[in-house]
Design brief:
This protein is about 50% helix and about 15% strand. With about 160 residues, the protein is of the alpha+beta class. Helix 1 crosses helix 4, helix 3 crosses helix 4 and helix 6 crosses helix 7.
Length: about 160
């Protein structure tokens, strides 16, 4: 498997979201899964379970725990879709089998699916970097949006970056 940067993987998510027609928050990961041709099966399961990649007739599908809160389900679905994107992008890649490094990439992709940089930047400019309002738009906690905006350089630990 070729070595790729975090920026490369973030761009991979952005390309997929744009191809799936995601132009405004909140991001519908179910629509992204449908665009990829991956069915999502949501059923109530024990609370320790979030999401898994399963196979139906030899093709990938996602099993999602309907008993978990919405944000947890979205992050879990984003994680599994991240694994799928990595495999679709690199013919030599395989689905992880207890390899921590592959889960780190999938976790990063899940974060990007839930708060995609290009959408956060766009909405932050429209709403004057109001991370509280943006958190509601994206359906994430305020702390998560603050962190996403800080990572994008839109907000500092002690104030907003006003560049417009």
């Amino acid at each position: 498997m070729a070595l790729r940067s975090d920026a490369y993987y973030r761009q991979l998510v952005e390309s997929e979201l744009r191809a799936a027609g995601v132009n405004e928050p909140p991001v519908s990961l179910e629509a992204v899964a449908a665009h990829l041709g991956v069915p999502v099966r949501s059923i109530p399961l024990p609370l320790w379970f979030t999401a898994a990649l399963i196979y139906e007739d030899g093709l990938p599908a996602v099993l999602l725990n309907a008993s978990r809160p919405m944000l947890v389900r979205q992050v879990g679905l984003g994680h599994v879709l991240g694994h799928i994107l990595v495999v679709l992008d690199d013919p030599e890649a395989t689905f992880p089998r207890d390899r921590e490094d592959k889960h780190r990439i999938a976790d990063m992709l899940a974060d990007e699916f839930v708060t995609p940089g290009y959408l956060v930047r766009d909405q932050a400019q429209k709403w004057f970097n109001d991370y509280r309002y943006l958190a509601g738009l994206f359906g994430v906690p305020e702390s998560r949006m603050f962190e996403a905006m800080r990572d994008l350089g839109l907000i500092k630990s002690r104030g907003v970056v006003w560049d417009y």
